[in-house]
Structure formats: C-alpha cells, structure tokens
Amino acid sequence: MCSQRQQQKIHNLNRLLIATLSCAGFAMDGIDSSDVLFTISLLLWVWLPECDVVEGKLFDMLSQKAPFKTPESVPVVRRL
Predict the structure, then answer these.
(1) Residue 74: inside a domain, yes or no?
(2) Radius of gyration of the chain from Cα atoms?
C-alpha cells in the first residue's frame, strides 16, 4: 500500500496529466475564445475536491461572522 502522501502525489500527477492532455487536445485545432472557458471548467473539475474543502471553510467562516436567516426562519408568502 502507498502512504497517504504518495497517494496524493499520484493523484496530483494524474490530474496534471488529464489537464495537460485535454488542453493540448483542444489547442491542436487552434486557439479560440471558448478555450478559456473550457480550460477554467476543466481545471475546476479536476481540482473539485480541494475546491469543495475551500468553499466549505469559507462558508463556515462567513456563517460565523455574519449570521443569516435560514430558510426555516423566513416567513413564506403565498399568493392566490
């Protein structure tokens, strides 16, 4: 079995390989303006677990500093 550190290195190398091959593949037909959006979405998808951790920490930090109303405490307005 690999250690946790070795598994993370292998996982990051696989991510880098996926991103490199994908970017090379779509760049072979020429650079287009939509390639920027594709690259951003690709990198977000490849690093999604880390982005989820960062977003969770940010959400916890913001919810502690600025309390907000939860959907249960917001009154429901019904129109007929």
Answers:
(1) no
(2) 20
pLDDT at 15: 85
Number of domains into which the chain is organized: 1
Mean pLDDT of 47-68: 79
pLDDT in tens, 21-50: 888 887 787 777 777 888 888 888 888 888
Q: What is the DSSP track for 68-79?
A: ---TTTSPP---
CA distance 66 to 76: 23
Measured on CA atoms in the order 24, 41, 9, 14, is the torsion positive or negative? negative
Q: How far is CA 15 from the centre of its chain?
A: 13
pLDDT at 75: 62
Whether 18 is covered by a domain: the verdict is yes
Q: How many CA atoms lie within 13 A of 53 on its CB side?
A: 3
Give the whole-angstrom CA distance, residue 10 versus residue 1: 13
